[in-house]
Amino acid sequence: SVAWHMDDERLFQGRFRDCLIISLSLGAERHFDIKALEPPIETHRLLLAGGDLCTMEGLFQKHYLHRVPKERGARTPGPRVNLTWRWVVAHCRPCPLVGALPLAAAGDSDDE
């Protein structure tokens, strides 16, 4: 299980600009919950099966939380692996890509 969170690490810039996160679910089915941060605060549940792709795009990380809830009782899942792809857009020195990609207008343009 994974608690409610957003992927808001600085290197992905997901709270300031379009951010694409792709997850490939392999193995047993698992629930994936999303919840809005602003009214109306709604929660939605998806069932991810083996081979399913789930994407979080645009400013999803700014406006929503997500989690993989604990499964109990008869729903206790079998083995599962999740592969996730994220794109680093805020590179740090001495990375050769510092300055190669424009940073979002987040008010934070230093190259820490």
Describe this structure in words.
The chain is mainly beta and 112 residues long. Helix content is 4%, strand content 36%. It has one helix and seven strands; from the N terminus they run E-E-E-E-E-H-E-E. The strands form two sheets. The chain has a four-stranded antiparallel beta sheet. Strands 5-2-7 form a three-stranded antiparallel beta sheet, with no helix packed on it. The protein starts with a strand and ends in a 26-residue tail after the last strand. Mean pLDDT is 84; it is low at 103-112.
Outline the secondary-structure elements.
Blueprint: E1 2-5, E2 21-27, E3 30-36, E4 43-48, E5 53-56, H1 60-63, E6 64-68, E7 80-86
Antiparallel strand pairs: 1-6, 2-5, 2-7, 3-4, 3-6
Q: Give the helix proportion (percent range).
A: under 10%
Our measurement of the CA-to-CA distance between the termini, rounded to an integer number of angstroms, reads 32 Å
Please state the structural category.
Answer: mainly beta
Question: So how many helices?
Answer: 1
Strand order of the largest sheet: 1-6-3-4
The percent range for strand residues is 35-45%
Residue runs with pLDDT of under 50 for 5 or more positions: 103-112
